[in-house]
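ESCALATION

Customer reports they have been waiting on this structure for their group meeting. Please prioritize. Original submission:
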Amino acid sequence: VAHIRSEDMLIGLVGETFTFPVEIKQRIEEITWTKNKDKVAVWERQNTPTYFTSLENRSVLKDNGCLTIFGLEKNDSGTYELHYWDSRNDHYLTFVLSVLDPPSEPKISWSIEGDNLVLNCTSNFQMPLNYTWKLSNDPHSHQGQEFSIPIENVDAMKKATCSITFSQTEKSSEISL
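Update from on-call: job pushed to the front of the queue and completed.
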């Protein structure tokens, strides 16, 4: 029996589609996915997959072992184990999935520091977010939670938009300058 332990902590957001990062190259005869030791999906060669309990009608199991869950819910959090048989050996992969509420809408605040207008973008979330600023007269986007503009350039800018992204979720807010 070959045991592959991969206690990966995976993060998904409520409402998203989530696929476990499984890449099995060899031909598989049987697949069983469990969540907290309860069966959630089973597949045997020549048969269509069977889904149980919470994953019924909202998941897809492919013959390469990949399990996708649609419309993630908080109670999808848990320890998932993939057990597959390749006609010679049993293999086990373990994943820990944590489903979080999406980040809050970003809030933009501003202050004047010397000759600069400093914009600050904040959002409530328990993990690091990716922050991007976009200005109405500038084709480039700027990374970072804080963004500084020389005051003499402010009139030409008109609007600034802050976008936050995490996983597949993006939210943005706009301020008129």
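Sent to customer with the following note: The chain has a mean pLDDT of 92.
Escalation resolved.
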